[in-house]
Amino acid sequence: MRERPGVGLGLALLSALTFATSGTFARPLITGAWSAEAVVLARVGIAALVMAVPALLALRGRLPVLRRNAITIVVFGLLGVALAQACFFNAVRYLPVGVALLLEYLGIVLVVGWMWLVHGQRPRLLTVAGSVTALCGLFFVLDLAGADRLDPVGVLWGLGAGVGLAGYYVIAGRVDPALPSVVMASGGMAVGALVLLLLGLVGLLPLRAGAADVTFAGHQMSWLVPIAGLSLVAAVIAYLTGVAGARLLGARLSSFVGLTEVMFAVLIAWLLLDELPTAIQLSGGALIVVGVALVRLDELRTAPRVNAATPPEPALATDR
What DSSP state is assigned to residue 271? Predict the structure, then answer.
């Protein structure tokens, strides 16, 4: 049991790293013949199909568990997959990508507020300090000092993405321990893909794709390469490790660890796209790490007290 928080932290960091590859994989498609919504649909739809077989194998003899958690999986797919991604990609129609990403990650503040208002987990001083530090680091990593006046429509879409992100962490952090993570991730992405497809069919989201070669990491290659990266790395691995990490760490801490996605995204763009981070961005990455460390320290300080007195809140309980 002692090593489980460390395992959870490693899974959450791996999830952030793999999620961070999505922008690099998606860029050659979006700048080509693909719409952003079509890229998202391909990403989660293919990933859901890839995980369908292991999910079915994991469910052998556990159909009652699936029935018991059907609503949770549907809500996870609606909030954590469909809402978060649809709102984000609509936000970037009106806002710079960095601003939209910052608005989405304000969802971590919603997580802290949710845990306080609904579960009575009032944030302690270190959590508050970690929140402020991590958000300041996020601001510097995105380098938003020169941002223009924001379009209110884009702001609303960005805040909607934040709600979806908060839902992702809260639901993943309090999932039924008997429900395998692969079932939760696969089912959620299947629901999300279906919703995005329906929105596209009724004309609310543009779904446009092409089969032309793309330029990725300085090389001409088939569009299948970035699609495979988006589906297998930025979706299958990212969602599986993210759900498993949230079950071990809880909604609040896992949401703060997820902030490192922005830092990883900057580093990946540097390695593959030769976009060198500025000194301000590197300083922001350090602040994010410090903020996560403060929240983690607060969790470690309060855990023994919670275990000795009362059972842990559902969202922070481990999967056993």
Answer: H
Phi, psi of 143 (to 5 degrees): 55, 60
Residue type at position 260: T
Confidence of residue 253 (pLDDT cuts 50, 70, 90): confident
Provide the pLDDT for residue 100.
74
d(CA 52, CA 40): 18
**pLDDT computed for residue 306 by the predictor:** 39
Provide the pLDDT for residue 314: 31
**DSSP alpha helices (H): ranges in 202-320?**
224-228, 238-249, 251-257, 260-273, 279-309
Are 103 and 91 within 8 A, CB to CB? Answer: yes
**CA 301/CA 44 separation, integer angstroms:** 38
Q: Say which residues have a Cβ less than 8 Å from residue 307's Cβ, sequence separation at least 6.
A: none
The tens digit of pLDDT for each residue in 50-66 reads 989 888 888 887 888 88
213 backbone dihedrals φ, ψ, rounded to 5°? -65, 155
Which has more pLDDT, 288 or 133?
133
Of the candidates 1, 2, 3, 10, the one whose C-alpha atom is nearest the C-alpha of residue 254 is 10
Distance CA 276, CA 295 (A): 29
Q: Write the DSSP assignment of 288-299 as a string of letters.
A: HHHHHHHHHHHH
30/7 Cα distance (integer angstroms):
35
- The 10s digit of each residue's pLDDT in 86-107 is 787 777 777 766 667 777 877 7
Q: Which amino acid belongs to residue 7?
A: V
Q: Please tell me the distance from the alpha carbon of residue 293 to that of residue 296, in angstroms, as a whole number.
A: 5
- CB-neighbour burial class of residue 73 (10 A; exposed 0-12, middle 13-18, buried 19+): buried
The CB-based long-range contact list for 145-151 (8 Å cut-off, 24+ gap) reads 147/96, 147/98, 147/99, 148/96, 150/95, 150/99, 151/94, 151/95
Nearest-Å Rg of the Cα atoms of the chain is: 19
